[in-house]
Amino acid sequence: MRPTARPIGAALVVLLFLAPLSFLVTGALREPGLLPTDSFTLLPNPLTTESLQRAFELVPLGRQLFNSVIVAAIAVPISVVVASWAGFAMVLLPRRVRGYAVGASLVLLMVPLAALWLPRFVLFRWLGVVDTWIPLIAPALLGMSPFYVLLFYWSYRRVPRDLLDAGRLEGLRAFGLWRRVASPLVRPTTFAVAALAFVTTWGNFIDPVLFINDPDLATLPLGLRSLSALGPTGFPVLLAGALVATVPAVVAFAMVQRRFLQNTREAGWLGR
Fold this sequence. Notes:
By secondary structure, this protein is mainly alpha-helical. The protein has one domain (49-271): MetI-like (MetI-like fold, Orthogonal Bundle). The chain is built from 13 helices and no strands. 70% of the residues lie in helices and 0% in strands. Helix 10 packs antiparallel against helix 13 (235-266).
């Protein structure tokens, strides 16, 4: 690609992703009670935050935002650590057993999530943890997704075996090899998995619908569902609530991207 084509391509990609965000912001700054428009306006006239205030009045978005932050703050680190452990453990397995583990992960990855809703509900109801945050956090104890485990496995496979052998000669066991040798070298993958796990947890709608009945434990997706029932005239209020839900995700992605790019440059030799 020519040097002049790269900035143009990057600008087009940025515009592609900024377009829906611009529509979200402009729609949230319109007056409540207005019908959706067919045309896009850069700044609505008049410009007001009344829809945002109305969203917080109709639904306890502040409480739900706090609940979503707590659930994500607990589930994301757990899922990253567990997926990292599982991926590194697969690297240490004998070749034949490793192949079975990778194959089992691929099979689990193809299982539709809808097939797990009923068994999970029966299990959590039997354990007596329905109407708590435990069902929302429990998937993190399994790495949240086999895809995250496979991402770590692929990254750890690129770590030179000489480094692991040198660590063993220094007396390091499996946990020490993971913490002191392998994990620092795959930080870009760690940040990428953290971002994916955050999006999965932050936008999780089905689990709160299935397991949360207490309004004080409701997360932000449940609040957006309530706002969606306002009808066409409540569209600015719905967009205001969606803006509240989007801002933390955008901030988290911006922070992760900066660390991701920084660590990718520092560990660029690993991508050889």
